[in-house]
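Input.
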Amino acid sequence: MKDHPEAPDLPERGFDRRAALQMMFALGGLAAALPGEAETAAGPTRLWTEIDAVLMKTAEIWNSQHFFRLKDVWDADDPEPWYVPEEIETPFRSWPEIEKYWGPSRRVLRAFRWQFSNLRVKALAPDLTLALFDHFYEIDLAIGPPTPPTAGFDRCLTIFRRKPDGWKHLLYAQCPLGPDTYIKALRQKIVQPDFKAFSAQTEAQYQERHGGDPAGKPRP
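Output.
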């Protein structure tokens, strides 16, 4: 198994940074359908494992509430990092903006929990990787009138650059579902885990009573 897939036409020294970002956005609407490296029956690839480790570290930092440490998993040498949080209208494209977001002057969050799943990765060049994953978060605000904790989910697209000390974020973009799709997904998520078995049992009882009659008439 290769350490990571390499497209035959990629330049040996990798893509220009802006070209990679443009590719990311071009792929954005199609990323869920694109083949990528994922954990399989044969086991995860090395590239998948390396990116998964970075995201595990990202989750550990978010969940420690020491948000200022998030720069540890970013390419601090990048002069123009891109960060696209779903709740902010204008994306961040500078370190001062991002660091203010991570470390506001007053306490905004009482508690925040960040999780990810369904990771897929796609090599763009030997030193650039695109990742797509599902993102789930829970949040308890420390500002405003008291409100119950809330949660949400979306998809994330990220670009990582390979540095001497490992893979680092170049770009992080949350990609929320459209309103109708989000509500549909939310309604599916709140179905109780045992309902599938309950539905199968109900269907079996129906078939037993009706014997597969297409008219739905019960047996005499």
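The helical segments are 17-28, 46-64, 95-102, 179-189, 195-210.
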